[in-house]
Amino acid sequence: MERTVILYDADCAFCRWWTARIMTWDHHDRLRPVALQDPAAERLLPGMKPEDRMRSWHLVKPDGRIYSAGAAVPPLMRLLPGGRPLAALASTFPGATERLYQWVSDHRDRLRVRRP
After folding, report:
1. pLDDT tens per residue across span 27-53
2. Distance in angstroms (rounded) separating the CA atoms of residues 44 and 25
3. Among residues 26, 102, 28, 27, which one has the least CA distance to residue 71?
4. Where are the domains of the chain?
């Protein structure tokens, strides 16, 4: 089974923490984490400028579809056990999901996380 790739910023403590939590939640091994700094990221996000790659987290489905920022929340949640209600909520309110993502992204350096 091909896995969906989750691309995250390995230089960001919050991003590493968040990705570790998601990977712990992924009981069915549907996700493969890849750092945005990894050369594979450029191949997974063809044609995307480096600054656009680093501006957000991304989800790349096995069929090549790419989702970024708040738009990646619903397809990610659909892959996780018990995540369908959160996917439905995020899909119903895409503007709010995007704003919440942007707020977290803008404040990620100030968000305190405990080491996994």
Report:
1. 999 999 999 999 999 999 999 999 999
2. 23
3. 102
4. 4-107
